[in-house]
Amino acid sequence: MHLEADLHTHTVASGHAYSTIKEMAEAAAEKGLKILAVTDHGLNMPGGPHYYYFTNLRAVPRCIAGVEILKGVEANIIDKDGHLDMPERLLRELDWVGAGFHDGTGYVRGSIEENTWAMIAALRNPYVHFIVHPGNPDYPVDLEKIVLVAKALGKALEINNNSFSVSRPGSKSRCELMARLVKKHGGQVVLNSDAHIFSAVGVCGRAVEVAMAAGIEQSQILNSSAGRVRQYLMRHRIRLEGILESAEQIK
Predict the structure, then answer these.
(1) Does the predicted TM-score (pTM) go above 0.85?
(2) What are φ and ψ of residue 157, in 5° steps?
């Protein structure tokens, strides 16, 4: 399967990645990708971007090397109520928001129930589009509950290719379980590289294998089509505007 978008990548701004946005976009173009999401880490990540990095993302061109650039973040869930390390002012300006658990960013590993509650609360954040590497065994969650809530909210869950090769050892069996649950209950997944260097952009082969083995339909894989990504973003934007309008009316 050829994916038309890679929706989770990191640049030098993340502090532990090694390529510029331009280098990542050029690599995406060489791989035949139409969309690249730049999702550098949230504010609490050690060595990560400063607040000003996100306020200045408007300076980044919308298209580089013929590839559409989504300006995003991999935000950190920082407590058991699902709060993120990104203020609303920043989230409001971003195209694409992922949320997940990371060591050293504020969240203290909890029980399965506590982790699940925190992840569900993050899913309910109206600015969040997807959950990053929910199969991470260091932060175990009730995957069936997560799949059901994500489906109900119209949010996507990630199968992270990096989890099978570089980071989060032991993720494969939990990612396989999540994929089977998505097949059973429905919903959407994103198959991402989590690239931290230009050569890894678009490298999602093992994530694709997990999705295909579970029988997930191509229509359920958000980034199998650039058009599907754009439609998803439009639906999310309309839903978000409705939520914000209702909040203003309550005030």
Answers:
(1) yes
(2) -115, 140
